[in-house]
Write a structure and sequence with these properties.
Gyrase A, domain 2; Alpha-Beta Plaits; Elongation Factor Tu (Ef-tu), domain 3; 6-stranded antiparallel β-barrel; globular; binds (6S)-5,6,7,8-tetrahydrofolate
């Protein structure tokens, strides 16, 4: 196996010391920053996530802060989701799209007030694009990366843990809404959100210097809840159909192909730069589908696996796949051509070990 060459360019996070102490076994790079994983027991981590509570260092979900009188205008230029009715305590999952209607990122947008937003990024350099729009459009905004690092608290016991550390009231926060908590004198945003379907919160750590104290407070308060360090879980996120930008969808896809149609409000949105292009892309010829792949656990995937029809023609690609202990099949995300995307369609998946039958499903698992 290879190791990552140490470098300041490859940024550590405010929680890196704690994540290392907790036994992180591998790192990937995401937004020029380290994302730790605990590879020893993905299945044990999965069971634990579904029964207890985990703390995930997802600092790599870097924020682009857009602040100023033209902030809403700038954010709306990048997304087909209508931002005009967003409330000050809301989070929106938004496709960000270029003028050709192609995806550039799929962040969570957090509205702090009408003139101030955070874009909590997937893995691409939206800071540069937003700065470019601001400069070229002579917009009255500042665009920068604040010292804000998300920490996810996920699992069925997350409510109990955040109540103990941040106060009983925070559990009243609804899904994709946020509230303000105070930690050691510092206000921070806490949202009910996160990259799992097990419930939970994301704390937007405001100030790296608080990182280890927040981490320690969560672990001290959660001992009897069996709180553990974790990371986004591949098995669970495929079951949930949570897309990974760069894997399942890329710069080559429209939000319609990504299955994000419900976040495209082309009839009402004003000032979105990709509107004309997306109006022409409403009927995609390929789209994200959930598939189950038969047989024993598939090997790890590091390149797209072709999907073939009965004549041997390529009709799609698998982008994410792994064994699910709960559903006792290989849960899979794929991009499938319209001719073969109906539920129940059987395809041949060219998986490195051998060819296997894949069946298109009507939806994801959870
Ligand atoms: N949280 C935060 N930032 C992030 C992610 C996150 N940035 C990177 C990445 N994840 C962005 N991608 C997603 C994908 C799905 C969701 C959130 C971010 C998500 N989707 C809900 C679902 O599919 O059930 C629905 C959201 C909605 O209805 O608005 O949560 O996880 N801070």
């Amino acid at each position: 196996m290879f190791q990552l060459t140490p470098s300041i360019r490859l940024r550590r996070t405010p929680f890196s010391n704690r994540v290392e102490q907790a036994g992180a076994t591998a790192f990937t790079v995401y937004n020029h920053m380290r994302l730790a994983s605990f590879y020893e027991s993905p299945e044990a981590d999965y069971r634990h996530l579904k029964t207890a509570v985990q703390v995930w260092d997802v600092s790599v979900e870097r924020q682009v802060e857009v602040i100023g009188p033209d902030a809403l205008r700038l954010v709306q230029m990048t997304t087909p989701r209508d931002m005009s009715r967003m409330q000050d305590d809301q989070c929106y999952y938004i496709p960000m799209v270029d003028t050709d209607g192609k995806l550039m990122n799929d962040p969570v947008a957090i509205r702090l007030n009408q003139d101030r937003y955070w874009l909590s990024l997937a893995d691409s350099d939206m800071l540069l694009y937003c700065k470019g729009l601001a400069a070229a459009g002579k917009l009255d905004v500042e665009v920068f990366e604040p010292d804000v690092s998300p920490l996810a608290i996920q699992g069925p016991k997350a409510d109990e843990l955040v109540a103990r550390v941040f106060g009983e009231d925070v559990v009243k926060t609804r899904f994709f809404r946020h509230t303000t908590i105070n930690f050691e004198g510092q206000d921070m945003i806490l949202a009910r959100s996160g990259w799992s379907h097990q419930g939970g919160f994301e704390l937007y750590l405001d100030g790296s210097e608080y990182g280890e104290a927040v981490w320690d407070a969560l672990f001290a308060a959660g001992e009897d809840l069996d709180v553990r360090a974790g990371c986004p879980n591949l098995i669970e996120r495929i079951e949930a159909g949570l897309l990974s930008f760069g894997s399942d969808v890329t710069y080559a896809h429209t939000p319609f192909e990504a299955g994000l149609t419900k976040y495209c409000n082309l009839e009402t949105v004003q000032g979105f730069l990709g509107r004309d292009a997306l109006m022409k892309s409403k009927d995609p010829v390929r789209q994200i589908r959930a598939l189950s792949v038969e047989g024993d656990p598939v090997p790890p995937i590091n390149h797209p696996w072709p999907l073939l029809d009965t004549s041997g023609s390529v009709v799609g690609h698998i982008s994410s796949s792994t064994w699910s202990p709960d559903f006792e099949t290989n849960v899979t995300i794929a991009m499938v051509n319209r001719t073969h995307w109906d539920s129940g369609t059987k395809l041949t998946a060219k998986i490195p070990d051998r060819e296997r039958t894949a069946t298109v499903r009507s939806g994801f698992w959870i």
